[in-house]
Amino acid sequence: MISLTHFLIVSALLFSIGLYAVLAKKNAILVLVGIELMINAAVLNLVAFGRYDGALYGGQTFALFAIVLAAAAVAVALAIILNVYKHYKSINPDDINNLKD
């Protein structure tokens, strides 16, 4: 049987991979994927703890809310990335240093 510890280890690994992707910041899409991995790690924690709360299902409710917010954040971030690419012809965060225009 899979215990809570297994869920937490997998979640910590997902979060670590996402954090590395954000800190490496090769391009904006990779940063966005890293953020999504970190959000998914948090959702996995919520579902894992909610599994042991059989009466209220609070973890699953918060996880569903977090998934909806993550989807909305991805839509907004992707629109911003597409507009930045149209203006600068690059999605490398280091190349974009002037956002006044």
Question: What would you note in describing this structure?
Answer:
The protein is an all-alpha fold. It is 75% helix and 0% strand. It has 3 helices and no strands. It has helices spanning 4-24, 28-51, 58-88. α2 packs antiparallel against α3 (58-88). The longest helix is centred in the last third of the chain and has 31 residues, at 58-88. The relative contact order is 0.13. The model has no long low-confidence stretch (mean pLDDT 86).
Quaternary structure of the protein: single chain
Give the low-pLDDT segments.
Answer: none
How many runs of DSSP E, i.e. beta strands?
0
End-to-end span in angstroms?
Answer: 57 Å
Which percent band covers the strand fraction? under 5%
Task: Report the principal-axis shape.
Answer: elongated
Give a quick account of the main beta sheet: strands, pairing sense, barrel closure: none
Radius of gyration from CA coordinates: 17 Å
Count, helices: 3
Provide the helix percentage: over 70%
Mean pLDDT: 86
The class by helix and strand makeup works out as: mainly alpha
SSE topology string: HHH
Topology record:
Blueprint: H1 4-24, H2 28-51, H3 58-88
Helix pairs in contact: 1-2, 2-3
Task: For this entry, give a set of tags.
101 residues, mainly alpha, 0% strand
In short:
The protein is mostly helical and 101 residues long.
